[in-house]
Amino acid sequence: MEKGLSGLRGRDFELSDAFYFSKKGLEAIVEDEVTQRFSSEELVSWNLLTRTNMNFQYISLRLTAVWVLGVLVRYCVLLPLRVTLAFIGISLLVIGTTLVGQLPDSSLKNWLSELVHLTCCRICVRALSGTIHYHNKQYRPQKGGICVANHTSPIDVLILTTDGCYAMVGQVHGGLMGIIQRAMVKACPHVWFERSEMKDRHLVTKRLKEHIADKKKLPILIFPEGTCINNTSVMMFKKGSFEIGGTIHPVAIKYNPQFGDAFWNSSKYNMVSYLLRMMTSWAIVCDVWYMPPMTREEGEDAVRFANRVKSAIAVQGGLTELPWDGGLKRAKVKDTFKEEQQKNYSKMLVGNGSL
Amino acid sequence: MGNEASYPEEICSHFSSDEIKRLSKRFKKLDLDRSGSLSVEEFVSLPELHQNPLVQRVVDVFDTDGNGEVNFKEFILGTSQFSVRGDEEEKLRFAFSIYDIDKDGYISNGELFQVLKLMVGDNLEDWQLQQLVDKTIIVLDRDGDGKISFEEFSAVVRGLDVHKKLVVIV
What we know:
The complex is a heterodimer of chains A (about 350) and B (about 170). Chain A is an alpha/beta fold and about 350 residues long. Chain A has helices at about 1-5, 15-30, 60-100, 105-125, 155-160, 175-185, 195-200, 200-215, 270-280, 300-315, 335-350, and strands spanning about 130-135, 145-150, 165-170, 190-195, 220, 235, 250-255, 285-290, 320. A seven-stranded mixed beta sheet of chain A has the order 1-8-7-2-5-3-4, with helices on both faces. Chain A has a two-stranded parallel ribbon with strand order 6-9. Chain A is globular, with a radius of gyration of 24 Å. Chain A starts with a helix and ends in a 5-residue tail after the last helix. Chain B is built from ten helices and four strands, in the order αβαααβααβααβαα. In chain B, helix 4 (about 55-60) crosses helix 6 (about 90-100) and helix 7 (about 110-120) crosses helix 8 (about 125-140). Chain B is globular, with a radius of gyration of 17 Å. Classes of the chains: A alpha/beta (about 350), B mainly alpha (about 170). At the A-B interface, helix 2 and helix 11 of A face helix 1, helix 3, helix 4, helix 6 and helix 7 of B.
């Protein structure tokens, strides 16, 4: 604000001060930083998918022909193959984990459970034609730690579990998701919550603390943004995950939008249509960067720690960093933001207090 | 209204047809209840506008017919004043209108006070604000009528290169 108002502290009000706010207002009206993150990224050059074709213009017969060919390949060749693979993968997961769950607790059980998880995840990733590059594997999250990553879609979970086993945290769902969840928890401990329990933050924190206290348990996977963002930026990390203690292992995930748009716009598409869109894209190509572990420093509060981790992830993944809360997708912004703007402006006028 | 295929070509603005297309999409996106016009609530649903103390003034300036909402034509004409191709005169007019709440062509003491109050909120006492307002009017009011006309306003602001500040790329 100081730069925009081009003043020194304690200078008088000038008529041109209103220009700063007007201009900021107009900029936000034309394109704002926040709501654009809740819809798919616009591509610079078209990748032959109708869904990314925002400004349709007929260009040439050849291009249309190529596009038609693309549609045929994607829907008639790739889709059936992928659906079959997905079916195999999920069935194997449910059957495998149920079988492993019958065994008594032992290191054999853990080893088998990991095997089942990894195999089925790899099959499922193939079902999406996923090509994943893992960087810095030496920093892969260890047992007893917390893995923290930016969130773009439910596929993030699949991408990460292909390379290692995690304990998931989340709400209990019904339907297909519910079946998978119940099967998974038989083979190794995950932390599933009832919807009512999620509201009780202390209960959540307590259960997570108990989990990481046991060093033999798998690292917990958490997405602190709390909602899906479109992979161009990282929004506010909720401090809850950073209050539990323990070692945080940050992970940055960046999808290549040329091959397919991985972002799940949950207000526009339900899970099934989202998966269908995924399976009719060219491929899911992404980079995963494992980062050196971070812990809360002396005297650092959870919010600052969360921001530190967020910046690290944003820098590594090449994403913009935004202080806004991803929850703004559905909720209104608080009035305190406006009051803060007013306070900052007033401070400029008053300077050292002698008005 | 708000139907992309039928945006009237006769809206005289500084925008190219590409820019109008983009703005038309933006208008549709902002128009949450699809009423064809934007209310203050719809503007304020953008977090960055919600935190802007002058959003009500900007909407009022856009709203030329005074019905409390901004229809597509007012939206285009309003944003056009910030276009990179706009001239200095219309930008000065826009800036002046931010202060001129009753649109009578003069910024009165009370109007200046109200706008300043919007910008500082409760962080300054009313008497402090009044002091600032009185000082500004004394300095700017050349003809001594106690209020600031457009000519007096432009005389001061013109030299600040306002046309460079009030530009937004579409």
